[in-house]
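Action item from last week, closing it out:
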Amino acid sequence: MARAVNGTLYVPVFNSTINPGEYTFSGATYDNQADATGNGAYDLKTGFVLFVQATDPFLATPVPGVMHRYKLTALSIADSVTISGTVLWDEDGSEVDQPTSGSYCIITEKTSAHQFGIPSAVAVYPNLPSGADISALAVDIRNTADSLDTIEILYNDEGSLVASGKIVYKSSSTQFKLALATNASFNEGTTFGVSLDGIANGDAGRILVAPGVKVGGFSGLTANPLFLSKNTPGGVVQSLIGFVAGNHVISVGSVNGPTEILFSPEYEYEY
């Protein structure tokens, strides 16, 4: 097994964007004391995880022993120790606290199956906040391990990128595709899910398959029923207007607010 790519990243300033939970940074300094390749920052990739010390948004002070998880969504490498990029909140629900500027963060690759981070040890990197490694592990226990029974790691067989929050179905035991109500193969035995990551074609990602779980990232929902769309792959509709013979009526779940659903898929009937 290859040595994990992880270490610390000193970030001078996190700059918030117009998107909730998203921040840009520049001139950050990377350190990997167990560098197996000698490539330094050139081994980093988008999708890596940052565990960042929390700052209380009301007190504007760092929270002792509390780290939050963000994912690296954009990356620019200046040299073997200097990078710039963009990070996005990567825990369940809306962002809690704010990232602490001028702090040392844990940066790490993810495990291939369940997307755990591999935290750097405070004993090796004494510039990390006290308790950073334990807090990072706790984040993944709470957000990843608790959901293992509800999530499958499947490969994207769509032929193109599948964005987060799309309704999908298992096209094989290890693959998924975007779901559309016109798919003639759907029946009571079809397994439906929701993509929890943006997943490139051919890549593996997290697919929520168990019912009874709240999923955010939607918009404009009302208290009407919720069905799989016949026009937008992976989309939802709240009316069966326009459905014709041969279309499949698949209830996706119930609305839990304008931006959230309670996922509970059920094949109802062929129109």
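Closing note: The longest strand covers residues 61-77.
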